[in-house]
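Ticket #4471: structure export looks truncated?
Reporter: QA, pipeline team
Priority: medium

Steps to reproduce: submit the single chain below to the structure queue and open the exported record.
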Amino acid sequence: MDNNIQSVRFFTGSNSGKGFYSLFDKIYNAADGWNAFLIKGGPGTGKSSLMKRAGKILSEKCDVEYIHCSSDPDSLDGVVLPHHKICILDATSPHALEPKYPGVCENIVPLGECWNKEAMRKVKTEVIALSNQCSILHARARKYISAAANMQEDTYRYALECVDVGKLARFASRLCKRELGDVTGKPGSESMRMLSALTPRGPMFFADTIEELCPRIYSIEDEYGAVSDLLMQAIREYAIASGNDIITCICPLIPENIEHILIPEKGIGFITTNRWHFPVSIPDRRIHIQRFTDMDRLKLHKQRISFNRRVIREMLAEAANMMTQAKQTHDLLERYYINAMDFDMIDEIGNDLIAEILLMIE
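Actual output as written to the record:
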């Protein structure tokens, strides 16, 4: 086994201030030669277990990205082999995917064929009731998250008013030229991911992914979000223009904002550090927002920002509580499907899938 093989973790879907926000349709690109295996099946049909088994075997051969489920971080929503342009994805709600180029780019993995239809019909009433209850709880969670996002956007606007945008732009230009090279005629590529998400356990951040992909880290220490977002936007634009392949990690609360940019080929990562996410190891360089911010002016809004921070904390706690109840309901729902599944048939489908992918990467 190659000791340089990497296994990293991301989210690509999360409850956000804009509802459920999904990056699933950005994981693969048919025009760029990707092959996607789309798993179809209900809760408890073995989708995550199949992907975990596939990931364990494939990680002995090549780099693997594990896409975790924000509603249940112990479950997988996907396994991606970025260098081979292959992915296995849970293509069911809330991140449903349908093949655009069936048989050419996408192949359906039909785990729904492995359940006993008669057994499922007998529990129709229970399944519908639990499914609806789960949807209600997630909807409540999204309302709390939306409230938190509104407060964070309010803080962002106060901070943005105090930023010396010109000074920040000049700093970004110097930083990018020093670290990323000259602008070229061939742009780099961009993958979209999330390094953090709100889960039933509260906010979760995959700091280990940064450590795995980027030995060198620039940490932008920003509790307000304005400086880090502006800096990340500038880094993103320059990095792509200079021919670098990047991983852009958006904010799950406010998906329009960029929180982190990873450039694995250069081994460098630019990350936003705040109370929700921070690196495991000491960053190579810390960038403090004070050098670009009129802190005296910002202090005029101290009371409002403190209020926003308190509301955000309380709203996210309530959202996590709703998501915990939703997971408990989902676990009950899974039992009905588990009791109706032919897991020997699922194992056979999984074996065929893994064998097919192994042939593709050899």
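Status: closed, not a bug. The export was complete when the record was re-opened. Leaving a note from the reviewer for reference: The mean pLDDT is 93.
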